[in-house]
Here is the input.
Amino acid sequence: MSSANPEVDSEPHPKTYFSIPYSNLSPLNTLDIHIPHDIGDDINSNYIHGGAWRDPLITSQSILLTLPYLFSPASASAPLIAGVASINYRLSPYPSHPTDPSSPSDESRNVQHPAHIEDVLTAVKWLQRKYGFRERYLLVGHSCGATLAMQVAMNVWKAREEESEDHVSDPELPMAIVGVEGIYDLRLLRHTHPEHPAYQEFIEGAFGRRIWDQDEASPIIGKYGERWKNGRVVVVGHSRGDELVDWRQVESIQWRLSIELRVDRNDVVLELRGGHDEIWEEGKEMARAIEVTLKVLDGSK
Here is the structure.
């Protein structure tokens, strides 16, 4: 593994680069890049971590245990993936975190929507400028990372210029989205867990107290047929054993996608196995969701 600049590093493949800045807004505006072989005309996979928009311990490195499955010579997906980029983004406040509470003076951990999605869009734009893959990528997200992935497809928010706060042209949207243990309807999530104040706390921390703002940010209202015209595949991967985000989130986004259906887009619900965090902590099921997406994408040509 390497932390060198990918432009000058001459190490043999596979290569890994950690904590590459894609913006100067904060120390959290970084990404990691994992390149298994020489980049050709293969598909890139861009990963967005979860953590309820606020957990400092769930980072871009949460993809690491998935990579051995993806890049294994036994994996049918290995030759198809040019590289995996894993994106960090600024976080919302978490002053009650047991080991690393946020401080009011830390601007990188005191943001609200739309800062998270603007960071993701800026990171994708940076990657497209550098590697030139345009729309040839999957956008994979776990938990609130799946929310962010679907928000990209909602095509409402914009990236930020690398050197300023000014908005710039959006990145090209992905061919496929993989949502894993995702949150798609914030109102539904809040109402499903009225006895657990943590849900209300992290939703308000990320989106504010106004219900309207929370609804407007939910992928359940996305106009995907109109705004995501190049979308070819959506895979909604979810475990019925998820103890934090239940199957009703799957049903909600499945309903919305059916309304916003395009004849040239394949929408797949993939039942996974494991708990909410086990999916990324063990890696195998996360890799399976990506592999299924690549297979569906290949069949949709």
